[in-house]
């Protein structure tokens, strides 16, 4: 069974539970927001990463990722120019089945994806948590500001998404994490990525800027 969602292509990957602020200024996305807010709650749209192209302008998103994440509008403030300042929260992963470009903004028929721990998830929690703490310590040693990590989730699914959202990675790696079949697969991939990133942090004196290091608004 599929659902139809308005689609908001972004040059970023949204994960379940992640807070995503957006500045909506393009006419097509103003229309999307107007249509969305005129309907019943929850006000949901789909955020999908752009694999080829860019965010701004007609036809700019030439190829979208196969898997995206729903975004629920938590707050929307209309601006004097007709745009919106919006705060959303990532909800449920979905797979795109078909895209409809008959409106000013894209719509898609999507299949919501299940969230499962998967085999071996519990045993992966401790080693990945340890590797992630080491990663954060190395970021701090390089001068980055990192949120306090006194308590990390023991639940494999929650931990997998927190780490996925926090890592400083290329978009392609982020997308791989979003598309992982279950929490166990995501944690195993995160372990390998963390091992790679820790080695890089040992070798290089600076770290790249990322959404992990700031809470900037995505302009769309």
Give an overview in words:
The chain is α+β, with helices and mostly antiparallel strands and 220 residues long. 34% of the residues lie in helices and 30% in strands. The chain has five helices and eight strands; from the N terminus they run ββαβββββααααβ. The protein has a five-stranded mixed β-barrel with strand order 1-3-5-6-7. A hairpin with a 7-residue loop joins strand 3 and strand 4. The C terminus is likely disordered.
Low-confidence stretches: 209-220
Structural class: alpha+beta
Task: Give me the Rg, rounded.
Answer: 18 Å
Task: Look at the structure and give the mean pLDDT.
Answer: 88
Strand content: 25-35%
What is the makeup of the main sheet? Answer: 5 strands, mixed, barrel
Which shape, going by the Cα principal axes? globular
Number of strands: 8
Strand order of the largest sheet: 1-3-5-6-7
Distance between the termini: 30 Å
Helix content: 25-40%
Report the order of strands and helices.
Answer: EEHEEEEEHHHHE
Instruction: Tally the helices.
Output: 5
